[in-house]
Amino acid sequence: MRGFSQSQLGFTLDDIPLGDQQFNNYNGLSVTRSIISDDVGGVDVSQGAGAIDVASTSNLGGAIQIHSLDPDHKRGGTVSQTFGSNSAMRTYVRLDSGDLNKSGTRFYVAYARTNMNLWKGGGYDYSDQVNAKIVQPLARGSSIKAFFDWSSTQQFDYQDMTMNYLHTVGLNLANYYPDYTAAYHAAQGIYRPEYLKTNDPYDAAYYAGTANRVDYLGGLTLDENFTDRLNWKTTLYGHADTGYSTWTTPYMPSPNGAPLSQRIQTPEIARGGFQTALTYKIARHTINAGVWYEYGNFNESRYFTEAPLLGQGTLGNPTTGFPTSKVFAQPWQEAFSTNTFVFHLQDTYRITKNLTVNAGFKSMIVNAGNSVPTQSLAINGTQVAQGRLEASNAFLPQVSANWRFLPHHELFFDVSHNMRSFPEDGYGTNVSATPWTSSQTAFQSTKNTLRPETDWVYEGGYRYTTPFLSALASLYRINFSNRLQLINSQSGINPITAVENVGGVTTNGAEASVTIRPLDGLSIYNSFSYAHSTYDQDVTTASGVQATRGKLVPNYPQFMYKGNITYRLGGFEVHVDGTYLSSRQLTYTNDLHVPGYFLANFGGRYNFGNIGVLKGLTTSLNIYNLANKTYVSTTNELGNNFVDTGYNYFLMGAPRQFFGTVSAHF
């Protein structure tokens, strides 16, 4: 969103903070694990300045606030079943209690199971998820609402690609699972013929990489209207996460003589907090003030377990558990603790009927640190980073205005100053720019000079809205300071990583979108965006000066286009949508990039109405990647290099896939 990755945005669910959205989350969980998509009642998206009252310490570029569906007033439920490519199956069931008494007490319980094989290689993605919500209406339109989510996910990872792998083996390069013999031989230097064509057959594939996560998330919200002018809203929440990830590595042989072993990482989260705010309306002012506090523990350990000798068994399916009796080494164990305190104050002043101004600020303190109860100097080669860092700012202001100067016409602008706290992760990890990934020596050398990422966001635009036409045009500028980047100086599999402050980044961008509704049931949407993000200066590292000044920021396209055509006629609906992303740089000096691509999707559905006890029986068909385009989806999952070293990793997008769904209410 406007050149920001999802870990630089703010995400909440029913005011519960979902934390940093990186893969190895330390203070939250992903959106898909926090709520079943069918139970989403609405989403508020704030681009640019973001929402000043959102509970997030990472919202540099905006906020995405998700609201769960309320239980229905009528007793009943919803069922749906999906089938699709790669043996995809998804089952969803929701049961609504309806109003249980005159006050309107009601609840629902929902369950979803999803299972799908990887589109290349062996393995699968599997998840079970349960949501529950209860609503108790109170006097004066007040309410108490409680939401609960349980999620269990097991997934196999796709093998990371490089340009060399893509041009030699091809896009179907995959790990060896379930062929343990092939992985065993590769660790001995005996490779499949296609892997011998690469510049690094040792790292081209492994037995498997997997992840297993179990989450419990719950929140209780009191929304109390004391009067028609005064509202008090408080949310209490808690979150627990356990799990592990595996990687079968040829870099650590087993004590029994096997040339490989299984590396286990066990992240665990236990956090809780509250958010409370008062809103008071007086004259033309709506004043809102609140506090958010969270205490969190993030513990992580790394182990190595023994692999069997060839002919004496296999590693089996790593997602079904790992044998603790086979652990032969523990390189490190780290325990993080974090205190987060945020205060906000804002006033929405309706100067005239058509002119509204919002102004406010927030103060943020995030104090985080770790202890290292266990570490092995022999395995790690250095002392693990240990210590505390604080990201704080007493005044992060935001000002915005909206002026309806004519019917259907409005102008708007906003200016904000934002800060992101330091991300947390264990030693030698390479998925986020965390200061704790390095050695104790490197940590101490930068501890007193390292600063949290901050930015100033400026935006102005014009909006036009009628039943026939909706149009938007906006310009924005972002001045980024203390940009922290994860630098890889060799293979991403056995990396030498460092976190560098690459200084300032300047982004100038423009957006335009238009939706036309020429006929009843027909909607045509098009949007265009341009963002030019460059580094403000060169970066000096231990290897010398890196020529980054004026270079494009890696991983972000300069041009994007999105289009959609939807037509509805009675119970029939069909849509076609398309997305274009221009090329993305893979290095900081822009000497390697992935090409742009255009992706089209198709969907159609028909509502048969009520049939017997079933209401709104609907069938749908969706086709992803309609033209079966070969394209690069994700970049930067293992950091970027300054120059093309041959170890610049990315993931390939899925080919054409078909999915069909039958759903109904009862």
UniProtKB/TrEMBL annotation:
TM spans (from-to): none
A matching Pfam family: TonB_dep_Rec_b-barrel
Localization in the cell: Cell outer membrane
InterPro entries xrefs: Beta-barrel_TonB, Beta-barrel_TonB_sf, TonB-dep_rcpt-like
TonB-dependent receptor-like beta-barrel domain: residues covered: 173-626
PROSITE patterns, per database record: TONB_DEPENDENT_REC_3
Keywords, comma-separated and alphabetical: Cell outer membrane, Ion transport, Iron, Iron transport, Membrane, Receptor, Signal, TonB box, Transmembrane, Transmembrane beta strand, Transport
Membrane topology type: Multi-pass membrane protein
Similarity-based family: Belongs to the TonB-dependent receptor family.
Protein's recorded name: TonB-dependent receptor
